[in-house]
Design brief:
The protein contains 9 helices and 18 strands. By secondary structure, the chain is an alpha+beta fold. The protein has 3 domains: 1-97, OB fold (Dihydrolipoamide Acetyltransferase, E2P), CATH 2.40.50; 104-170, E3-binding domain (Dihydrolipoamide Transferase, Irregular); 200-401, Chloramphenicol Acetyltransferase (2-Layer Sandwich). The longest helix has 16 residues, at 183-198. It is elongated, with a radius of gyration of 26 Å.
C-alpha cells in the first residue's frame, strides 16, 4: 500500500519547512529509516528518514518548495500502484488552506502579459477561476493537459508548491556570485525584518573594563588542558545569567496583552554558520557551573556548524547574546532582537585604551557592549539599571559566583 510522506514537524515551534535537497529520485528503492530528503527550517537543516519501505513513486514537492507541516512531499509504495487519489487529496487540502473564494491574497501576483498574449494561453475556465481566486499568476504554470492546456489540477499543484504566488523581479546586471534567497537565508531575513518593524527598539552602548575578568580567566586556566580551558565568552555568559537572576527585567516577552517576566533563564548564543545564523540555547544558565557552560558553548557551536542541532535546542530562549569581538573590527553594533525575547546583548571587541582610574590615566582592556531592548516591554531606566548591574559583575567577576 502506498505511503504518503508529509512535511515533518522537526520542533515544537516549526510551522513550515523548505525542501532543500532530494537525496532519492523517483524510481529509487527506499529502505525504512533511510535518508530521503533534506529539510530546511528557519533555524536548522535536517535530513529526514523514510518511514516506509518501497519505491519512490512520486516526488510532489520540488527542491526549493516551502510547505506547511503536514503537507505532502512524496509518495512511497510498490511499482505500479495507483496514487492519483493521494495526490488529488493533497492538492485539495492545499487549496483549502488558501484564501477563500473571491479573496485573493494581499499583494498576490497578477498576470503581467498583454491581453492579446493572455488570450493565447490555453487554460480551462475552472483553472482560470481557481487561479484568479487564489491570487496565482497562471502564466507561470506549465500545463499538462492536451497541447499544454493548464488544468484545474495544474493550478492545485501550483498552489501547493507556491508557484506564481509572487511576481518575479529581474535585474540583468552582471553578478560575481548569486545566492538563492530561500531556505534558512529567507527565513532569517523575514524573521529579522518582522522583528525590526515590530519592536520599539532602544540601544544602550557602554564600554566595560575587562582587566579583572581576564585576570580571573588566566588564574582559572593555570595548569588546565587546552580543551578544558574556560573562555571569556563562558564567563560573560555566566555574568549575564547572574545579572538576570538578580534583576530579571529584560528576561521577558510580550505575550498577547501580557508582559511576562520568565522564571527560567535560557540564554541564546548566536552562532554564524555558512548558510546563515543559528541561536542554540543554554537552558537554566544561572543554575549551571562555569565549566558546564563552557563545555556546552563549545558543543553547541561545533554541532551548529555541522547542522547537528535539533529545533528544540534552538527554541525557548529568553535573552540572546551575540559576540562579534573575535573579528577584532567592531566596538559597538545594534543587533536585531530575536523574537519573542525582549532584549539582545551585543559583545564587541576588547581593545587596550587609555582610561581614567582613580584620577590617573592608565591603559586598560576595554570592551564595547550594546543592549538592545524592546521599549514596549522594558523602559530605558530599568534597562540601564540592569546594564549597570552587568557592568559591576564584569568588572568585579568574583561577585558572579556569590
Amino acid at each position: 500500500m502506498a505511503t504518503p510522506i508529509t512535511m515533518p514537524k522537526l520542533g515544537l515551534s516549526m510551522k513550515t519547512g523548505t525542501i532543500s535537497k532530494w537525496l532519492k529520485n523517483e524510481g529509487d528503492k527506499i529502505k525504512k529509516g533511510e535518508f530521503i530528503v533534506e529539510i530546511t527550517t528557519e533555524k536548522i537543516k535536517n535530513k529526514v528518514e523514510s518511514k516506509a519501505e518501497g519505491v519512490m513513486l512520486k516526488i510532489v514537492a520540488p527542491e526549493g518548495t516551502v510547505l506547511p507541516v503536514g503537507a505532502l512531499i512524496c509518495v512511497i509504495g510498490e511499482t505500479g500502484e495507483d496514487i492519483a487519489s493521494i495526490i488529488a487529496d493533497a492538492a485539495k487540502n492545499a487549496a483549502a488552506a488558501k484564501p477563500a473564494a473571491g479573496k485573493a491574497a494581499p499583494g498576490a501576483a497578477q498576470p503581467k502579459m498583454s491581453a492579446e498574449k493572455l488570450a493565447k494561453i490555453k487554460i480551462s475556465p475552472a483553472a482560470r477561476k481557481m487561479a484568479e481566486e487564489s491570487g496565482i499568476d497562471y502564466t507561470l504554470i506549465t500545463g499538462t493537459g492536451p497541447e499544454g492546456r493548464i488544468t484545474k489540477e495544474d493550478v492545485e499543484k501550483a498552489i501547493a508548491e507556491g508557484v506564481g504566488s509572487a511576481a518575479e523581479e529581474t535585474d540583468d546586471r552582471p553578478a560575481v556570485k548569486v545566492i538563492p534567497y530561500e531556505g534558512m537565508r529567507r527565513a532569517i531575513g523575514e524573521n529579522m525584518a518582522k522583528s525590526y518593524s515590530t519592536n520599539a527598539r532602544v540601544t544602550h552602548h557602554v564600554k566595560v573594563d575587562m582587566t579583572e575578568i581576564l585576570a580571573l580567566r588566566k588564574k582559572m586556566n593555570e595548569g588546565v588542558a587546552d580543551k578544558n580551558k574556560v573562555s571569556v565568552t563562558a564567563i560573560l555568559t555566566k555574568a549575564v545569567a547572574r545579572a538576570l537572576e538578580i534583576n530579571p527585567c529584560v528576561n521577558a516577552s510580550l505575550v498577547g496583552n501580557e508582559i511576562r517576566i520568565w522564571q527560567d533563564i535560557n540564554l541564546g548564543m548566536a552562532v554564524a554558520i555558512p548558510d546563515g545564523l543559528v541561536v542554540p540555547v543554554i537552558r537554566n544558565a544561572n543554575t549551571k557551573r562555569l565549566s558546564d557552560i563552557n563545555r556546552e558553548i563549545v558543543d553547541l557551536a561545533k554541532r551548529a556548524r555541522k547542522n547537528k542541532l535539533t529545533l528544540d535546542e534552538m527554541s525557548g530562549g529568553t535573552l540572546t547574546i551575540t559576540n562579534l569581538g573575535g573579528y577584532g573590527s567592531v566596538d559597538f553594533f545594534t543587533p536585531i532582537i530575536n523574537p519573542p525575547e525582549a532584549a539582545i546583548l551585543g559583545i564587541g571587541r576588547t581593545k587596550e585604551e587609555p582610561a581614567a582610574v582613580n584620577g590617573q590615566i592608565v591603559v586598560r582592556p576595554m570592551m564595547g557592549i550594546s543592549l538592545v531592548f524592546d521599549h514596549r516591554i522594558v523602559d530605558g531606566a530599568p534597562a540601564a539599571e540592569w546594564l549597570a548591574l552587568l557592568i559591576g559583575l564584569i568588572e568585579n567577576p568574583t561577585r558572579i559566583f556569590i
